[in-house]
Write a structure and sequence with these properties.
There is one protein chain. The protein is mostly helical and 194 residues long. It has a single domain, classed as CDP-alcohol phosphotransferase transmembrane (TM) domain (Four Helix Bundle (Hemerythrin (Met), subunit A)). The protein is built from seven helices and no strands. Helix 5 packs parallel to helix 7. It is flat. It holds the Pfam family CDP-OH_P_transf. This is CDP-alcohol phosphatidyltransferase family protein. GO terms for molecular function: phosphotransferase activity, for other substituted phosphate groups. Belongs to the CDP-alcohol phosphatidyltransferase class-I family. It comes from Planktothricoides sp. SpSt-374.
Length: 194
């Protein structure tokens, strides 16, 4: 899904990345800026500015997260550390948004929403961890229904469309399902290798 989306949006992001490259901004700087903007979005959400937090996350922070990789490819600066930093800060960004929502729901004492946010955050980490662990074993593991892009899209729809509790539970359930899909994939892959 992410590769498909990247190919369909190259005509937008490639020229922007080339312009940013001429300014001397590094891909890693964009990665860090994306995280900082997600932290601001999380604070806005915690302060009940859910719509504006969603807009900032979806239309400023997320495009920067796409642009960092595009810029790295345009400048021929793809590095292992850059890929590592991008992955790690993506997890921080997702956790920040979930923590912003938890802070919001603590104020309204919505126990089920808090539990849903916690489960969504845990599920997101498990989706990433199962892939990282599989790849550490030399097994390609991009299977599953809920990629990073889909998690961001679902969260953005929830925040901007004022259906945040529905989005949270969707993320919680589908991220755990995706983790199970990846476990099954690795199980099958290891059985054929042994």
């Amino acid at each position: 899904m992410e590769t498909w989306a990247r190919e369909r949006t190259r005509f937008i992001f490639d020229p922007i990345a080339n312009s940013i490259g001429k300014l001397g901004i590094s891909p890693n700087a964009l990665t860090v800026m994306s995280l900082l903007l997600n932290l601001v979005a999380a604070v806005l959400i915690a302060k009940s500015y859910i719509f504006w937090g969603g807009m900032l996350m979806a239309f400023v922070a997320m495009p920067l997260d796409v642009l960092d990789g595009t810029l790295a490819r345009a400048l021929n600066q793809e590095t292992k550390f850059g890929a590592f930093l991008d992955s790690v800060l993506d997890r921080f960004s997702e956790a920040a948004i979930c923590l912003g929502l938890i802070a919001l729901f603590v104020q309204s004492q919505d126990t089920w929403a808090i539990f849903g946010c916690s489960l969504a955050m845990f599920g997101s980490v498990m989706v990433s961890y199962t892939r990282a662990r599989a790849e550490g074993l030399g097994i390609e593991c991009r299977v599953g229904i809920l990629t990073r892009l889909m998690r961001v899209v679902v969260m953005a729809i929830g925040l901007i469309g004022n259906v945040v509790v529905f989005a949270i539970w969707t993320l919680a359930i589908l991220s755990l399902f995706t983790s199970i899909q990846r476990i099954a994939h690795v199980y099958q892959a290891t059985r054929t290798q042994e």
